[in-house]
Amino acid sequence: MVSVTIKDVARMANVSVASVSRALNGHSGVTAETQKRIREVAARLRYVPHNAARSLITRRTQTIGALLPDLHGAFFSELIRGIDLAARARGLYLLVSSSHGDATEAAIALRAMQGRVDGLLVMSPHADEAFLDENLPVVLPTVLINSHVRSERHAALDVDDFGGAYAMTEHLLSLGRKRIAFIGGPEVNHDVQERCRGYREAMAAAGLADRATVIAGDFTEESGYHAGKQALSMVPRPDAIFAANDMMAIGCLSALSEAQVRTPADIAVVGFDDIPMARYVTPPLSTVRVRIAELGEAALERLVRMIEAADDAPPEPRAVVGTELVVRASCGGSDTVRRRA
User: Fold this and answer.
1) 277 has pLDDT over 90
2) For the whole model, what pTM was predicted?
3) How do beta strands 286-289 and 119-122 pair?
4) How far apart are CA 271 and CA 252, in angstroms?
5) Contact 307, 271 (CB under 8 A)
6) Could you tell me if 297 and 323 are in contact, meaning their C-beta atoms sit under 8 angstroms apart?
7) In this predicted structure, what is the pLDDT of residue 1?
């Protein structure tokens, strides 16, 4: 079967090729009636735009690249969903890769995407300034997500990890919890560093800096389970455990339940992110809500603005996405409470 071309659509709709291109790409200069006729003809002929040819003309691939630390888990699933939905709404496609915690893999992924994407979203613990300078061309629009890098070359979008962790620690203190342990994550992770900093500063502000205890974790349920076991062996035991993400908090809940320790009566447990599963565990998990899908959408929108801006346009200033405190049964508070963090 011979492929239908844009010329076939133009001939059947009795318009110019340029009019077909404008109508199908959502550009102005075509009346609503003509646009409707062109779209109907294109659908009837099952015309599919030739992306390769269009890329030669526009110098765009209509594809966005995303480099993430991992693809496993509810957080990254939600983040990718938000990015992809926003991309599709703009006629863009998404190319996703992961560094799997390895700097070399991150560099390979970034280099492989060059020439295939119009811009990049980068969330990587390895993305310091030297790494970006070595692996990203200056002209490729890039948005850094939750990065410690402060560069004029790249736009940045960060979650208020510090503020969210500080507010959750304050909330636990307000409930009378004094021995609060914190389950951390990968040491190179910027989110972990900020969440741990928020926890430590809130403890210090309450005059409890000497009681701040950090237990190692790696963001997985299994590490949260082992951290929970470790917390149970402490003397005295913590009366609250704050995990740096919900997956570790869920693993910790399992360890406490297995040991027949009551949550929250004996030990309160809270997390961070508010993944969809958090409200369905027993007891429902109190957590710091990051609107994950909206974070992905906001990052994509920022990148699209950079792609469409003039070459000499100044980069947008760093933006911070706020968090919310979501109080459920796992900390002993009312599940109707909602506070901006």
Assistant:
1) yes
2) 0.76
3) unpaired
4) 10
5) no
6) no
7) 44
